[in-house]
Amino acid sequence: MRNVLDFKYYITVRYNIFLMLFVSIGLLGSNPAFSQNEINSEDREASIYTIYNVEVDETARNVTLAREQALNKGQRQALERLFRRIILISDRKKLPNFSDREVMDFISGFEINDERRSDVRYIASLVVHFNRDKVNEVLSSYEIPFAETLGTAVSVLPVLEEGGALMLWEKNNKWREAWQNYDVINNLVPINTPEPTLMNRMYISALQAKNDDQDVIRAFIQKNTLNELIVVTANVIKDTAANQLVLDIALRRNDILDEGTENPTHNISVSVPAYDEEGLLNEEALFKAGVDAATDWVDDLWKSKVLVNYGSKSSILAHGVLKKIDDWVIIQQQLKKVNLVRKVNLKGITINNVDIEIEFAGDEEQLALSLAQQGLALTQNQGTMDWDIALTDLATNMSRN
Questions:
Q1: Largest CB tally within 10 Å, which of 34, 35, 163, 232?
Q2: Which residues pair with 166 in a beta bridge?
Q3: Can you give the pLDDT at residue 41?
Q4: CATH topology of domain 154-306
């Protein structure tokens, strides 16, 4: 019996030594963020501070000049998209018109894809990476709060009202087609458009969606296991006096967790010239402008929850229970992905427990919301007011991918 106990004691001691060595070498050495330095994960920043699919097409007297103009224009467009992603619509007017040199100061690098050229024309698709510190510095100087947390995906049901008819799943619903073709990779909130499957057609009609039939809508949400569903009803109006096409949009949110809560309808209106350069009805541009405006609104709803101003910092002490040997490793990985987190200091660790200090921007509620996006549950004990941090199934699944 004594030999068995000695062996268990030996294994426990050896594991503790290995664990502490792993922490001191792997974290305090190769990852200074967990000693006393700020977290600076390229992977984390890439999720917010990289803009994709910037299409450029320029013609000039020679291809060298066309390329220069295209890259300058593309980088400026990317910066505008970045600000569109992280600040509120109402705050955009507070920004100045940056010069080409100032735009370049924001950029840490870029990639060129699908490059094509002739003697006088240059076409390409850009991926532009931005310097997070520079962006934060400028926005803070203008006292503009910003969001660095990606939102949870939402789904939209695009209902088109045109000429007295309602369309949802029909092939000629150009409003739904615009949503399906829209590139939302640079939006803060990922957006999905349900496919016109037979099951979806049976569950909800255009009329039921437009009339806010809650029994049908909630059944549709549950059947498709959606986080949130937004019914986006658009009405096309031809303003012949102004020679414009107008799109009146009504948006209504439906969250499965907010059953019984009445969400008011939000109305948006956009317009474009009635005809394009070739004399064709400008419907494609109209619907794209409508999706732009609607996704701006969706992003702003999320930003209002996670906006922070980096003029001040807070910190909390959090205790975590380690149920498995790799729990602490997963916690570290997920903390690195949370932009609000500025520093993580390791205070103590054993086989079963870890104590850390988290320095962050924003408030505790925003931090908890951002951590939840990465599968970390941050809760406060109402009796002791101490903070606990724990892994959820989401974090475990993320670490496997």
A1: 232
A2: 161
A3: 38
A4: Rossmann fold (3.40.50)
What is residue 198's three-state secondary structure? helix
What is the structure's pLDDT at 260?
57
Q: At what angle do helices 364-373 and 283-306 cross, to 10 degrees?
A: 120
According to CATH, where is 3.40.50 located in the chain? 154-306
Q: Give, for 395, the enclosing helix (H) or strand (E).
A: helix 393-400
392: tokens are 């959820």
Which residues does 38 contact at the CB level (< 8 Å), separation at least 6? Answer: 342, 343
Write out residues in the chain with pLDDT < 70, as ranges. Answer: 1-46, 256-262, 310-312, 396-401
The CA-based dihedral angle spanning residues 111, 115, 117, 122, taken in that order and rounded to the nearest 10 degrees: -50
Beta-carbon count within 10 A of 240 CB: 7
Question: Which DSSP category does 266 fall into?
Answer: E
Taking only the tens place, the pLDDT of each residue in 46-57 is: 478 999 999 999
| Cα–Cα distance for residue pair 326/324, rounded to 1 Å | 6
Architecture of domain 50-141: Roll (3.10)
- Report, in angstroms and rounded to the nearest whole number, the Rg of the chain calculated over CA atoms: 26
Burial class (CB in 10 A: 0-12, 13-18, 19+), 45: buried
